[in-house]
Amino acid sequence: MKIVIAGAGEVGTHLAKMLSDENQDIIIMDNDERRLNSLLEYNLMTYYGSATSFEDLNNVGVSRADLFIAVTPYEARNILACSLAKNAGAKKTVARIDNSSYLNKENKAFFVSRGIDHLIYPEYLAAQEMTSALKRTWVRNWFELFDGELIVVGVKIRANSSLVGNQLKDLSDVSHIMHISAIKRNRETIIPSGSDYIRENDIAYIATTHEHIIDVMEVCGKTPVDVDRILVMGGGEITEQLVSQAPSRYRFKILEPDAERCQQLADRYPNCSIVNGDPRDSDFLEEEGIASYDVFIALTETSEANILGCMMAKEHGIKKTIAQVENLRYFNEAEALNIGLIINKKLLASSRIFQIMLDSDVDNAKSLALADAEVAELVVKPGSKVTRAQVKDLKLAQGITIAGLVRNGEGYLVTGDTQFEAGDHVVVFCLLGGIHKIEKIFG
């Protein structure tokens, strides 16, 4: 698959690194040589040039591109670049945008007619992730696949869970309700086998079906938190998207150090309480009654401040905290701390684009935003290797597990006795770079 990425910023760079492990034909272009030089060690090509230049697009072979992705910092440039690429022959295009109104269904035909197949708005994706987390406070992540026929939840395992201290092979009494597909432990993601143990403070990624969600919650020792009052640290674009998307029953208080920005927010969101002050100041947070809130969300531009803010909120007894951590160097460190859900725009955007690359229905398909693992949905092709034997006899490569499948519109968990059929939609967990291995046996 030939993929051209325009823009070697944070999203483009992370996406290029992720896809470089998939043995794809990748070229990333940018007009900043320093950014391109940082990618020389990866399995991809770089090109110094402009995504809106006919000559440069021709030089990177955009006419032969299966996927053209424009993720420069400039919305108009991304839209124009996708339009030019499509006109030149690119099969599918993706543009990063900064305007949520472009995502409205009534505008889709307009963009498609101009050669833009998919629009990615990272701040909107981040707000979606947080809105979902507010609805289901006992999980770190919640992904509904195939209209909810399969569900993947990320759960922090505490000492009160009956799973702690058990090997996966000994959990036969719960194997009919859940499939533990990945474990995040001490900054490392594990694709477990039957001999792996569940330990306290693991983040377990569990596949299940809708009828067993309550059972999974109880096995994990979780109880939901009633959400009414939400304290938000930082009044940026993600905060605006969150307030716009969240149900009206939530009561938001937003702490923002810039007085002019406070006035803008107050004019746009009269139902929110807007307070001017430095949310990094512990005394200020205490004055604003931090301990009286159900949820604390840290969305400043500084990862360190967001991590510290959530740690402080936990100390004040807030059970549900969410931190925006854009610096990937801190991402695994933050997950290892007791600060709740971690939001990273570039991971969310890259996950969505990765799903588009796999040619799935992005309305139903979600990809877990993990720094060092992938989740994909694959369709079993007629005559493929996986149709010839039960899962226990497939001899899957280490670091790969098959969590669930949807057959004839109904979701099932996968066991060792499962045998796939052509047309099955299958959810696969693997370590970064493992997707191409599993694609081979699925045909």
Question: How would you describe this protein?
Answer:
This protein is an alpha/beta fold and about 450 residues long. It contains 14 helices and 21 strands. It has helices at about 10-20, 35, 55-60, 75-90, 110-115, 120-135, 215-220, 235-245, 260-270, 280-285, 305-315, 330-335, 345-355, 435-440, and strands at about 1-5, 25-30, 45-50, 65-70, 95, 120, 140-145, 150-155, 180-185, 190, 205-210, 230-235, 250-255, 275, 295-300, 320-325, 340-345, 375-380, 400-405, 410-415, 425-430. The strands form 4 sheets. The chain has a 6-stranded parallel β-sheet with strand order 3-2-1-4-5-6, sandwiched between helices. A 6-stranded parallel β-sheet has the order 14-13-12-15-16-17, sandwiched between helices. α11 (about 305-315) links the parallel β15 (about 295-300) and β16. α6 (about 120-135) crosses α13.
In short:
By secondary structure, this protein is of the alpha/beta class.
List keywords for this structure.
443 residues; alpha/beta; 6-stranded parallel sheet; 14 helices; 21 strands; 30% helix; globular
How do the strands and helices of this protein lay out in sequence?
Blueprint: E1 2-6, H1 10-20, E2 25-30, H2 33-37, E3 45-48, H3 54-59, E4 67-70, H4 75-88, E5 93-96, H5 108-113, E6 118-120, H6 122-135, E7 141-145, E8 150-156, E9 179-185, E10 188-190, E11 203-208, H7 213-219, E12 229-233, H8 237-245, E13 251-256, H9 259-268, E14 273-276, H10 282-287, E15 295-298, H11 303-315, E16 320-324, H12 328-336, E17 341-343, H13 345-357, E18 373-379, E19 400-407, E20 410-413, E21 425-431, H14 435-442
Parallel strand pairs: 1-2, 1-4, 2-3, 4-5, 5-6, 12-13, 12-15, 13-14, 15-16, 16-17
Antiparallel strand pairs: 7-8, 8-11, 9-10, 9-11, 18-21, 19-20, 19-21
Helix pairs in contact: 1-13, 6-8, 6-13
